[in-house]
TrEMBL record:
Domain RNA-binding S4: 10-68
Membrane-spanning intervals of the chain: none
UniProt similarity note: Belongs to the pseudouridine synthase RsuA family.
Protein source organism: Candidatus Harrisonbacteria bacterium CG10_big_fil_rev_8_21_14_0_10_49_15
Name recorded for this polypeptide: Pseudouridine synthase
SUPFAM superfamilies per the UniProt record, alphabetical: Alpha-L RNA-binding motif (SSF55174), Pseudouridine synthase (SSF55120)
Domain of life: Bacteria
Length: 242
């Protein structure tokens, strides 16, 4: 992430997090352990730094942090609440998958792709509204969709609380009861609420893609580790690697 001089002075943990080096909490831990230097001197928790300050983290700590991070794509089945995912999965995950958590959520009656990781940097980059990342869903409705429905869903819908959703990409045939939608935001129950405003009810909702991570090949309840080129593209799209 590019940071302008106007953003300084900046707390050092925020600086390291914005650089994609670690989370703020991990930064504070490293600082307390004397692993971060500013201008050749040990950093202090809460320290304010300037744009020209030289901030150094021990290379072996950076390497270990990178090697400890894991990422999984999980196909959440219907009936499993997001908060119960870890209880179901932890016994089956490899030992290296310590402290993983779901990034974002799917409600209990929805299903599909959840990203699991122990990399706290991902949470803000993927969920913060200031970043724009595609999430694709396949939706089944209670009645045949119309051209007006497709047009209004794509242009944005004024929800019951007054919020107007951002434009979205839709694909579907008039007269069918199924369509796909790509969102770049993720308000609570957004698709269901959009459909309700337009007089439709969602009978099934499945998330099939988060950025370049796809659900294909995973049965409900299955997961796979995200590695190699797929992981590199994912992290690069989040601005976490060059």
């Amino acid at each position: 992430m590019n940071m302008s001089n106007e953003q300084f002075p900046m707390r050092i943990n925020k600086y390291l997090a914005h650089k994609g080096i670690c989370t703020r909490r991990q930064a504070d831990d490293w600082i307390a352990q004397g692993r971060v230097m500013v201008g050749g001197e040990p950093a202090v928790i809460g320290q304010q730094i300037q744009a020209e300050d030289e901030v150094v983290v021990r290379s072996k700590d950076l390497a270990k942090a990178a090697s400890d991070r894991v990422y999984f794509a999980f196909n959440k089945p219907i009936g499993l609440a997001t908060e119960d995912v870890l209880e179901k999965l932890v016994p089956t995950l490899p030992k290296k998958a310590k402290d993983v958590f779901p990034v974002g959520r799917l409600d209990k009656v929805s299903h599909g792709l959840l990203v699991l990781t122990n990399d706290g940097r991902v949470t803000d980059r993927l969920l913060n509204p200031k970043y724009v990342h595609d999430k694709e869903y396949v939706v089944r409705t209670d009645k045949p969709i119309t051209q007006n429905f497709l047009t209004r869903m794509g242009k944005g819908v004024k929800l019951e609380d007054g919020y107007i959703t951002k434009t979205a990409m839709l694909a579907g045939e008039v007269g069918a009861k199924r369509f796909s939608i790509i969102l770049t935001e993720g308000r609570k129950h957004q698709i269901r609420r959009m459909c309700t405003v337009l007089g439709f009810a969602v009978k099934d909702l499945r998330r099939v893609r988060v950025m370049n991570l796809k659900l294909s090949g995973l049965e409900p309840g299955e997961y796979r580790e995200v590695i190699g080129k797929e992981l590199k593209v994912f992290l690069k799209s989040l601005g976490m690697v060059k």
